[in-house]
């Protein structure tokens, strides 16, 4: 996964290694003008932050301004930054946590209560977690739809973040069909990796002409919306997000004198 970020004068890539103790993630950055190495950083937590940040950015532009009840579906390692990002762009008055595992659900809710000055409730029923929520994020390992699209309600915003495989999905075709605004971090990447969208198209529930890229949303090119609109952001992850996050870390490290300088 490689990309260039002209605004920072950097280019770089994200790499994965895997061994007996699991996976490791690395981001390497280079000077875009002459190719000099600028940074090599461990990127597990960095990747979680950039994934959450993409959802936060989409929520900022897609969720209703008054949205205040947030449901997180999934309580794994990627869930924390998803919640923190949404909390950074909306004044939340309640966070709901759903996981099929009661222990994970309770533990994650307890962690969020310690992190946030917002009431957090573990919810045993997925239907109850969705009912009345203004914003929802799915961040699970599910290969099949988690809930039927008929459960969605007017005005809800949904971030779908768990799958980036073409044959897996967290939401069904009805959910995709019900969305009045569909945004992916990048449409071209989504056509290759976003099973939630690819499978919906195969079922006749989606025309790719309806899907916009996140950059279009930020640029204001997606038109006006009504408060009753259902909006959906599908994330697959982009190299430019990793390079941008790494650029911020590099800037902070240099300003604070942290890290070991790389040779030219």
Q: How many beta-strand runs?
A: 12
For the record, give the distance between the C-alpha atoms at the N and C termini, rounded to a whole number. 23 Å
Largest sheet: 8 strands, parallel
Note the overall shape: globular
Give an overview in words.
The chain is an alpha/beta fold. The chain has two domains: 2-46 and 241-256, ornithine cyclodeaminase, domain 1 (2-Layer Sandwich), CATH 3.30.1780; 49-238, 3-Layer(aba) Sandwich (Rossmann fold). 35% of the residues lie in helices and 23% in strands. The chain contains nine helices and twelve strands. The strands form two sheets. It has an eight-stranded parallel beta sheet with strand order 7-6-5-8-9-12-10-11. A four-stranded antiparallel beta sheet has the order 1-2-3-4, covered by helices on one side. α2 (79-89) links the parallel β5 (69-73) and β6 (94-98). α1 (44-62) packs parallel to α2. The longest helix has 19 residues, at 44-62. The chain starts with a strand and ends in an 8-residue tail after the last helix.
Secondary-structure map:
Layout lengths: L1 E4 L4 E10 L2 E10 L5 E6 L1 H19 L6 E5 L5 H11 L4 E5 L3 H14 L4 E3 L3 H5 L4 E4 L18 E4 L12 H6 L2 E4 L2 H7 L1 H8 L8 E3 H5 L12 E4 L4 H18 L8
Parallel strand pairs: 5-6, 5-8, 6-7, 8-9, 9-12, 10-11, 10-12
Antiparallel strand pairs: 1-2, 2-3, 3-4
